[in-house]
Amino acid sequence: MHIPLDRDSATPLVQQLTQHLQTWITQQRLRPGARLPSIRTLARDQCVSASCVIEAYDRLVASGWLEARHGTGFFVAERKPGLALDDEPTWGEAGDGSWRQFREGHEELLKLGCGWLPIAWRAHEELAQAIRQVSRGNPQDLFDYCPPLGLASLRQQLHKRLARLDIAAGPERILTTQGASHALDLLVRTLLRPGDTVLVENPGYYNLYNLLRQHQVRMLPVPRTVEGPCLATLEQMLAEHRPRCLFVNSLYHNPTGTSLTPKVAYRLLELAREHDLRIVEDDIYADFQEGPATRLATLDSEQRVIYLASFSKTLSSSLRVGYLVADAPLLARLAELKMVTGIGNSRFAEQVVGQMLANGSYRKSTQRLRLRLGQHMARLQGQLEQFGWEVMCEPYGGMFVWARVPGLGYARLEQLALEHAVLLTPGSAFDYQGAPSEWLRINVAFGQDSRAQAFFQHAGRPSAR
Predict the structure, then answer these.
(1) Where is the HTH gntR-type domain (predicted)?
(2) Which residues contact 107 (CB under 8 A, 6 or more apart)?
């Protein structure tokens, strides 16, 4: 059995393996009852983990392609007359070419502007091992509630991580949350009231915009430049409106990929002191850092900066583990609100993350991610320039490039993208009022997919205009 798995593809290996097995069963015209290779044999032959094969076989069982027989293996399932499998062509209809044409015609669009990494890039084995360790450990971690501030063991690990970033924060100043969005929600509920005014970066994080609207908070947009928030606009708005807070992405800004310069960072802290302003620093991409970086929380000596981060981007969005750092009085109010609204976090999820931090597997997995992202970032920026695209800046890390084709509006870009099975995230999504934009957020992790490459080339040609 030859299965051509593409380890550079954005499609997860499990999904590739599942699809190729379906193709193989169809092309070989295997009869019901035919036995498939054992899990160990297939894993060895394809150089994948046993868990990858198990999941692929489980998917095929769930969709009706296979049946599992306890102690003997996996076998081709009997197809009921008139019943197609998961809306796929019936066996008699799928010849050597028609199956591939059918599959390609219904393939999922490539989400080029998404905000997550390909599943194939994630630390599958390390995460699974941590889950097994927690499951075999103290039963309390499977059944009990989590303390209001979060598990002491996890907060101790977070304290060590923050110290390596030169952020002085003892465990008593750290509150765990259900991801960064939960941290933002707790802060908005605690610090702001309907009618209050805040400063937000534009373009910026659309979920923050929606959250502030939900709480009837007035937003003032500060343009994001290559060096950070526009200081001239910021100073004017501080003098005229006396806003309560500034929300900022210091490192690898979403969506532009830009990062704060030291000059801008120091001036932001000076302005915060002069105008009694709190700064909420969203550092969700902290673990993608490669080389030196400027963070407000590192420079802050007056505890005006509230720092938050999360493991959703680097580890797992499903675990929902994040954290924030604040002064003790504010932290107490946030912990009380956290318990009132949600009873606390998942003790199990916090144990899993704590395990990976303690045994070093998380550190190693993020090192791999940074290397891979860096390679894809460099390659994609060169390709975009070659194809005639304009990039706002050259990020030195992170996931995103903010790019456009000069003179080509979004409607035309979207049309070209759909012709190449690519789904875009429009620049208007990152404007605080949803204003039209030629700019696109491009996730570099998906930029080498053949569909993305064809779209980049086509859109950059003069004929596309």
Answers:
(1) 11-79
(2) 421
